[in-house]
């Protein structure tokens, strides 16, 4: 995978830092199958999407999100 940098609007680093993202009553961020949130260009994965889960689940979500983010950024070029 090529390396480089990209400008981003913001990144969600932890639960509670959701800014203007849609969240559930349990403060979970809903996403589609490719980890896209309700806000264009914003992706989420791991416990902030599933609630407390296993490390394996979080790693799987991270891989899905990474692929989706890569595809999204390539389309912006």
From TrEMBL:
InterPro entries: FAD/NAD-bd_sf, FAD/NAD-binding_dom. Residues 10-62 form the FAD/NAD(P)-binding domain. GO terms for molecular function: oxidoreductase activity. This is FAD/NAD(P)-binding domain-containing protein. It comes from Candidatus Ethanoperedens thermophilum. The lineage of its organism: Archaea, Methanobacteriati, Methanobacteriota, Stenosarchaea group, Methanomicrobia.
């Amino acid at each position: 995978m090529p390396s480089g940098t990209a400008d981003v609007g913001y990144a969600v680093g932890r639960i509670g830092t959701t800014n203007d993202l849609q969240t559930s009553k349990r403060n979970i961020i809903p996403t589609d199958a490719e980890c896209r949130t309700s806000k264009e260009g914003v992706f989420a994965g791991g416990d902030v999407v599933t609630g407390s889960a296993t490390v394996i689940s979080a790693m799987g979500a991270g891989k899905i999100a990474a692929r989706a983010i890569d595809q999204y950024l390539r389309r912006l070029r």
